[in-house]
Each structure stands twice: as structure tokens, then as C-alpha cells.
Amino acid sequence: MTQPSTLKTFLWFNDGLQDALNFYKETFGDGMLVDEASLSSDSLFTAEFSIFGHEFTGMNTPGGQTFNSAISLAIGVDGQEEVDRIWDAITSGGQSGQCGWCTDKWGISWQVIPFQFMEHVGNPDPAKAQQNWGILRRMTKIQLSDFIQ
């Protein structure tokens, strides 16, 4: 064998792949890269892209199934300000869910999780950790200030 195997997430957009690429570039900035060689000059059929190093292939053609929350993209972010920014972008035209889950306007499910989250649900005091899990279950967007220290 000359090349190692790879794993990439394949997303079938029934329409709107170019809009999604533009949105992800705006939302994730330098964390989102598009392989320009994969873009056709005619109508866009497929595109290779990555978000924070995770690789995707997007296909743009009608007839596919709609996305659902059986699979989601979990994005770890640093701090409440970044949670707010990413959450607001994804839910603009999309939908809020529970416990940090939301969907973008194409129906792709995301989890926006601050790195600091584990400090709260992994609190060394088991009673506080349990309380924080209960607090999480009542949240939509994660609010770090709502957890018990």
C-alpha cells in the first residue's frame, strides 16, 4: 500500500452548496478552507473544503435526503464570546436546539461546545457535577455563567 486510508465527511446538499460555502467561510473565517481546484466554473456540483482541519466533500444536486440530527458536527470553541458568535451565525436562518445543539439553514446539525464546559460537568464535587448536568439539560445555547462553580 502506498497511501494511507483517509476519512472525510460527505454532505449532500439538495441545493445551495455555494451559499453554504460562503456562509461557512464568513462564519469560520480562516478556519474554513475551500480547495479552489474542486470548484467548477459552471454550476457547482462538488467542492472539497475543511473547517478547522476536518475535511468535507459537498455535493450539490437535487434528490438527496434531508439532513437530520442523527449526526451532528461538534465544534469546540474557547469561551462564551465565541459560543455566542458561532451560535448566532448558525441559528440565523437555522434553529436552536437543546444542550448546545442547533441546525443551520441547510439542516446540518451542530453542537457548539465551549472548551470550559468540561470544567463544570466534570466538577470534582459529584453533587455540583450532577447539578451542572441538570442545568445543561435546560439550556439551548450553552451559557457558561449559568453553571455552578
Textual characterization of the structure:
- 28% of the residues lie in helices and 26% in strands.
- The chain is α/β, with parallel strands linked by helices and 149 residues long.
- The chain folds into 2 domains: 7-63, 2,3-Dihydroxybiphenyl 1,2-Dioxygenase, domain 1, CATH 3.10.180; 66-149, Roll (2,3-Dihydroxybiphenyl 1,2-Dioxygenase, domain 1), CATH 3.10.180.
- A 4-stranded mixed β-sheet has the order 1-4-3-2, with helices on one face.
- It starts with 8 loop residues before the first strand and ends in a 12-residue tail after the last helix.
- The mean pLDDT is 93.
Query: What is the assigned CATH homologous superfamily of the largest domain?
Result: 2,3-Dihydroxybiphenyl 1,2-Dioxygenase, domain 1
Biggest β-sheet description = 4 strands, mixed
Strand content: 25-35%
CATH topology of the largest domain: 2,3-Dihydroxybiphenyl 1,2-Dioxygenase, domain 1
Structural category is alpha/beta
The overall average pLDDT, rounded, is 93
End-to-end gap = 52 Å
**What's the number of helices?**
4
SSE order: EHEEEEHEEEHH
**What's the β-strand tally?**
8
* CATH architectural type of the largest domain: Roll
The outline comes out as elongated
| Helical proportion, percent range | 25-40%
Enumerate the spans where pLDDT stays under 50 for 5 or more consecutive residues.
none
Count of domains: 2
Radius of gyration: 18 Å
Question: Main sheet: which strands, in order across?
Answer: 1-4-3-2
